[in-house]
Amino acid sequence: MEKVSGPEDGHVASINLRPVPVSTRPLRRLPQLAGGLALYGVSMGLMIRGGLGLDPWDVLHEALSRRSGLTFGTITAITGAMVLLCWIPLRQRPGVGTVANIVLIALAVDATLALLGPAHAMPVRILLMVGGVALNALATAAYIGVRLGPGPRDGLMTGLNARTGVSLRVIRTGIELTVLATGWLLGGTVGVGTVVYALAIGPLTQALLPLVRWRGDQRGTIER
After folding, report:
1. Rounded Cα–Cα distance for residues 100 and 167 (Å)
2. Mutual orientation of helices 152-164 and 168-185 as an angle, nearest 10°?
3. How far apart are CA 202 and CA 107, in angstroms?
4. What is the mean pLDDT of each run of 10 residues along the chain (224 residues)?
5. How many H helices and E strands in the chain?
6. Alpha-carbon distance 52 to 192, whole Å?
7. Which of 5, 15, 162, 203 has the most CB atoms lying inside 10 A of its own CB?
8. What is the rounded CA–CA span in Å between residue 23 and residue 115?
9. Is residue 186 packed enough to be buried (19+ CB in 10 Å), middle (13-18) or exposed (0-12)?
10. Which of 89, 102, 109 is nearest to 152 (CA)?
11. Cα(120)–Cα(37) distance, rounded to whole angstroms?
């Protein structure tokens, strides 16, 4: 058993989610991977349009997007690729889920922002924020549940843990506080949504993961 997390979450309960080769049941697992990552991008777009605060990495992404003029999705892809380069000295190996994470989330969040305009009425903004957090939890569970490799940011966390021996909790907290502070100083949106995300994403993902986690074939050749 190992403690793992979704694209941006470090609070999922311990459960066996060790990567399984993509050649194992690809027709069952790849659609769930793609769907989970697409929904993750949609959830990011909902929280952005709600304007009530983002998760730490998206605070940074938003700030960089505003300052550079690049789309939010483009910034997430560039950031993901840069984080992936940090895997090299950590001797981490990307999986198909790692690469798909960079591409599909970027496309999905930009598409959502293009289709959904900013909200102004507070009830709508609250609905977008709450819906974004809930959808993010479902997307996280679906994405990590197919066991096709961690996203760039989670791989950085687990790689640092393996190389330094420092606990995942300490590493994750340090990374997210650094990212949040940097994004806030650069002008990213920090608010009640940031707090709601931090408190809710772990428990929600933990609750949803058993419903969508791929456990192996019926003959038991993959550990359940």
Report:
1. 27
2. 130
3. 25
4. 41 61 88 95 96 94 96 96 90 87 96 94 96 94 87 83 79 87 94 92 86 67 45
5. 9, 0
6. 6
7. 5
8. 35
9. middle
10. 102
11. 27
**b/e map of 158-171 (b: 16 or more CB within 10 Å)?**
bbbbeeeeeebeeb
**d(Cα 94, Cα 80) in Å, to the nearest integer?**
12
Residue 218, classed as helix, strand or coil, is coil
Cross-strand partners of 15? 2
| 2 beta partners | 15
Find tokens 């690049």 and name the residue.
70
The token pair at 84 is 């992936």
3-state secondary structure of 177: helix
| pTM score over 0.90 | no
Q: Which whole-number Å values give the CA distances from 163 to 92, 112, 125, 151, in the listed order?
A: 10, 38, 42, 18
Beta bridge partners of 209: none
Alpha-carbon dihedral 149, 161, 168, 104, rounded to 10 degrees = -30
Element at 66 (helix H, strand E): helix 56-68
Q: Which two tokens stand for residue 141?
A: 């569970």
Q: How many CB atoms lie within 10 A of CB 86?
A: 15
Amino acid (1-letter code) at residue 37 = L
Alpha carbon dihedral 198, 180, 86, 170, in 10-degree steps, equals -50
Residue with tokens 């993901």: 80
